[in-house]
Amino acid sequence: MSHNKDFKSGFVTLAGRPNAGKSTLTNALVGTKVAITSEAPQTTRHRLRAILTTDDAQIVFVDTPGLHRPKDALGEEVNKSTYKALEDTDLSVLLIDSTRPLGKGDIWVFELLKNAAKGTEPLVLFTKVDAASEEQIVQQREALSAITSVDPLLISAVSGQGKSEFIEKIAGLLPKGPLWFPADTKTDQPFETLIAEFIREKILRNTFDEVPHAIGIRTDELNQDLKRNLTRVEATIFVERDSQKGIVVGKKGAGIKAIGVDARKDLEMLLGTRVFLDLRVKVKKNWRKDAAQIRRFGYGEGS
Question: Residue range 212-235: average pLDDT?
Fold first, then answer.
């Protein structure tokens, strides 16, 4: 595939305010689930690389954690990870939620991307256009024109509108280059990380606002028995307080059971086998304030 002498490849940073739709879009672009999605803001903690390979190009999308002003050591580690991603990419794309008025946060991220690229302005992508009215998009264009002359692209991860145009635009701007990853690779994340993230996604969805950011997941065991078409996965869910443990476990274990049932479906798709999933919940007080502990969970720099 990369024998094409005009083959292009490169790294493209996707950045934006929390909940701009980066993870949902990343999954839509590569055609499979590699990033977790949730209504809770600042869901993404890992600097995930998602890989799209066509006959003419290999685009490595870097799905950065949502940029925000950090409130604790975890937030600082996540931001550091994002800044590092900005340094090493060929292109950067600012994602703006077309259903929410363009705000100071969007302008802050725009300036950050521009500075990281030594003055080159990022591409701008209006996301969630399937959910926006024409009037909202007109207003977003007007607000954007006050900070840049860049013409925004429109995209919907849900309907697929604008997806092929976006991919074509990106591929056209990338330099000629090699196949950085095997053509069938979709992400650079190890299974253990993806497993932990998929479990965390289910907790975020099942517990809503009650415990979102106090959760850390560690994959303890991953054993594949190909003869039996079965993978045994053991993972520990860490929370900061006993009350949070109670919420995750639920009445008579109903909460943890629901999380396990939901997570198993995703893990079976990811691993391509039946999955036996064993989840435990432990309390580790104030782990988000401990940088060493954050790194043990694999969040932040180097992840």
Answer: 84
